[in-house]
Amino acid sequence: MNQRPSLADIRKWPATVSVPQGARALGCSPNHLHARIKRGDSPVKTLQFGTRFVVITADLLRVLSGEDRGAA
User: Fold this and answer.
1) Residues 21-47: pLDDT tens digits?
2) Predicted confidence (pLDDT) per residue in 7-22, tens digit
3) How many CA atoms lie within 13 A of 69 on its CB side?
4) What CA–CA distance (Å, rounded) separates 12 from 39?
5) pLDDT (tens digit, 9 = 90+) per residue, 61-71?
6) Strand 46-49 relative to strand 52-56: parallel, antiparallel, unpaired?
7) Which range of residues forms the domain containing residue 39?
8) What is the rounded distance in angstroms from the CA atom of residue 55 to the CA atom of residue 7?
9) Is 54 within the bounds of a domain?
10) What is the DSSP string of the chain?
């Protein structure tokens, strides 16, 4: 599925998702989101496990619904 998911779709996702899945929801490439994560200016909160990052779904929903941007 290459189409951007709806907010209703994202609400059904697990607590964390892969960077490629999060990037698809944001409408950007996985490479772009990875670069922003590594620079520390990602629009969504992430967790790091070794060298792997995952996107926090609740924060993805917050950003996409236009709520206050408090992400660090």
Assistant:
1) 999 999 999 999 999 999 999 999 999
2) 999 999 999 999 999 9
3) 7
4) 29
5) 999 999 765 55
6) antiparallel
7) 7-64
8) 15
9) yes
10) --SPPPHHHHHTS-SEEEHHHHHHHHTS-HHHHHHHHHHT--SS-EEEETTEEEEEHHHHHHHHTT------
Residue 1 Cα distances to 41, 55, 61, angstroms = 27, 19, 19
Number of domains in the chain: 1
Q: Does a structural domain hold residue 29?
A: yes
> What does the pLDDT read at residue 68?
62
Tell whether 72 is covered by a domain.
no
Question: Among 32, 52, 12, which Cα is nearest to 60's?
Answer: 12
Cα separation, 9 vs 37, whole angstroms: 24
